[in-house]
Description:
The structure holds 2 protein chains of 2 kinds.
Chain A: H1 2-30, H2 34-54, H3 58-83, H4 97-121, H5 134-142, H6 146-173
Helix pairs in contact in A: 1-2, 2-3
Chain B: H1 10-27, H2 38-51, E1 57-59, E2 64-66, H3 68-87, H4 99-118, H5 122-139, H6 147-178, H7 183-186, H8 197-214, H9 222-229, H10 232-254, H11 260-281, H12 287-308, H13 310-338, H14 353-356, H15 358-372, H16 378-392, H17 396-421, H18 435-453, H19 456-470
Antiparallel strand pairs in B: 1-2
Helix pairs in contact in B: 1-2, 1-4, 2-3, 3-4, 3-10, 3-13, 4-5, 4-10, 5-6, 5-10, 6-8, 6-9, 8-10, 9-10, 9-12, 10-12, 10-13, 11-12, 11-17, 12-13, 12-16, 12-17, 13-15, 13-16, 13-18, 13-19, 15-17, 15-18, 16-17, 16-18
Amino acid sequence: MENLEYERLAWAVLFGHIVIIVVGGFMTVLSQSLVRALVGLIMTLFGVAGLFFLMAAPFIALMQILIYVGAVSVLIFFAIMLTSAWPGGDESGKCSGRKYIYAGVAGLVPAVILATAAIRSAPPSFLVPEETEISVLGKFFLEDFILPFELISLLLTVAMAGAVVLAFEMRRKK
Amino acid sequence: MLNFNPQLIIPELYMVALLAVLFVQSISDRLKDKILWVPFAALLGAFLAYFSPSGVEYMFYESYRIDGLSQFFKTIIFLGLAICAANALRVGSLGKANRADYFFFMYMSAFGLLLLSSTVELFTIYISLELSAFSLYILLPFRNNDPRAVEAAIKYVLFGAVATAIGLYGISYILAVQHTTYINELLTLDWSFTGQPMALIGLTMFLLAFLYKLALFPFHFWAPDVYQGASNETAAFAATLPKLGAIVIMVRLMAFNPGMEVKTILAVFAAISMTFGNLVALIQKDVKRLLGYSSVAHAGFIIMGLVAGGAYGLAAASYYALVYMVMNLTIFWIITRISHDGKNVYISDLRGLYSSSPILAFVLAVSAFALVGLPPTAGFIGKLFLFNSAWDAGFYWLVIVGVINTALAIFYYLNLVRHAYTLDEVVPARISLSPVGASIAVILALSVLYLGVMPQNIFDFLVQASQIILS
Lengths: 174, 471
């Protein structure tokens, strides 16, 4: 009896998170002001972090909050502030209703196809989450996946150097 | 096993050394414009890759594999890079960024492609792809105050991000069902739609990231804009080398022999891609935009070999990758030489090229004939291998569509030659062709002819390399 109640609670928590993610997503896409869109994005990122907790991956969830909610969002906020984007840009006009319908269909069709495939043929053995220790995770990165792990650092260097080069280029043009 | 053996990855280590030198140059005021050595360094890299061992060896816990196919692609990536670098030596549209910066990102992109030709683990493939793509994103907007270049770059970045995100999502499906991301383990698993529908859907999504790089319909929309918007030198790079990386990965993935469903979808995309690319190219006035649509059509041809599968089909696709690179580098070399102040070249600008520079007109004719696929050029023999493989695999309708499209393509490619040879020039063109520029153009034209006349050695090598992948 108690198990059943826990299961109900788990479903409620799961759908609660899904609602948070979806609402945040719509806020990001639909809102007129960039700051409000950012708040929506933060809401979605929090929701995803919650899902990671539900999947028994607390380390990943904490990283999600630290990196995305903490660092990346602040960075985006600074970008909005420094570029002083005004709300009357090219895309600020009202869209026609038909466009919303097209966008909805384009989003729903792949989602439905992919979800049916996942629900119909999900491997049953992996439905019960298992927590992975952080030390195992670290070993995994530094042994099996050492090459991609090291390449990521190169990737970040390139992205940073590129951002510097392009930003200086733009500033000198002014 | 880590199994780190530096001898096996000499080309990659050499490239890292080049990148280090370029990095130092780009931050030093005294050295930043001394870049004459760059193309020669890439040429030396081609020799290193050509002579490095090509037996099957695994490194880094089996995520990195040295074999015939990887060494072949590394060699041609270095060769293409040498031509692109020589082409861009006098690039005049960098604004205030220095040349060392430009070459640093170009070589970093090529480094990502070198890694792509050897990686055999899905996450490593993904990150190598991003490494090569990120560097290219930074190269594209370098064009003096030209908003079109920035627009092209932003389009390429945004759509590219979506395409790679779909690919990454695809990996999650593959991982959920097959429980591994190593290609040599995936090769032995079931890839039919009835057995593992989720894995097949995942594989399709992962392939989409590469179809985007290849500019196959329906992911073609960036190609014309990027070719037209980027400066001639950058477009020559963006049009050729990244496709090699996409092709080598697709060759490795199609070796899984996935279910007929995926092959049919790809074949349909290929047919639409060829037809659409050729039809739209008919009405283009800007030569680079025309080449953009022509590359959409060529992507369809390459897919033909991939859907045919088997050692012959995969070898045909790899061979066409080499042919495609050489043909396009040749025609872009001409465009860069003709272009005045780095402006875009229109078809009418080609008028009277024969009288102002017979050498360039001849090389243009060779490359145009090759792009159509007329004998005795490389384009003919490359297409012949592709048609053969698709016919043997039973894709008769695809071969027929391909042949009709070759006929369609004759018009707009030979239109370039017609302008160069028969029409009189309106304004006297000022073409300053250095002896070095002329001789590289002739060498490129000769290699287009060589690949068309003597394909057997390279092709046999590729068939063997493909058999090793399949086993």
